[in-house]
Amino acid sequence: MDLNLDILRIEDEFIITHCIVQNLSSEFVFGHSVLDGLMLCKEGVMCDDEDRYRICICNTCMSSLCVHHIPRLSLANNLYHGQLPSEFSDLTWIEEMVCAIFCATAHVTRLFQSQDSATPHVMYGNTCAHGMNVVSTASVLPRTPADINDALSVVFIGNQNFDPARIYSLFHVRKTKIRCFLAFLKRHNWLYQSMEIDSS
Q1: What are the distances in angstroms from CA 33 to CA 14, 22, 38?
Q2: Torsion angle of alpha carbons 45, 50, 51, 55, nearest 10°?
Q3: Of the candidates 25, 24, 27, 33, which has an alpha carbon nearest to the alpha carbon of residue 51?
Q4: 18, 24, 27, 31: CA torsion to nearest 10
């Protein structure tokens, strides 16, 4: 079967210079001259003990490749979002919202107090993200608390007075972490290159 994998080759200069070569140089390197440089998900490329390579391709993507078209859901179709360094692995979802250019979801959090007398200070619950029209596009980041309040609702359910200190980590916002994250995005994400960052 004739597959034109070259149409998946990375050619975006911004990604090459800002996202790949700096700390992520092995992102699209697979150890094979035919595959190196192709925008493939590493989990879908396998190599056995005899150095034979196998690529997992879904039927939809296979159909596109057979007619020399870039698959609609492939990374090469402007869907590559990069990889975050480990220092940002602990970002809270509130911190991500503060740094987002577009606000397209409203979050409703329901928290229940424990009914077990042995663990009176334990709370459990869930957060649901509800899609909505893009209500705001930021021109300056980070977003202010007033910006986030409109897209966030918290419901507390229990028979005791609520102590805000008990959910400190759930809605935790660290100024230093946000400042570093925005600096990283400004260097590595073209959407943020012209974004004004408010250091105050």
Answers
A1: 23, 21, 10
A2: -20
A3: 33
A4: 120
Percent of the chain exceeding pLDDT 90 equals 26
- Helix, strand, coil distribution of the chain in percent, nearest 5: 30, 20, 50
Task: Please give the model's pTM, rounded to 2 decimal places.
Answer: 0.65
- Asked, as a colleague might, if the bond just before 142 is cis with ω within 30 of 0, I would say yes
How sure is the predictor about 63, in pLDDT bands with cuts at 50, 70 and 90? very high
- Whole-angstrom distance, CA of residue 97 vs CA of residue 88: 14
Dist. CA 87–CA 74, nearest whole Å:
27
pLDDT at 76 over 90: yes
Range 29-39 average pLDDT: 90
Per-residue pLDDT averaged across 59-86, rounded?
90
Question: Which amino acid belongs to residue 125?
Answer: G
Ramachandran angles phi, psi of 199, nearest 5°: -75, -10
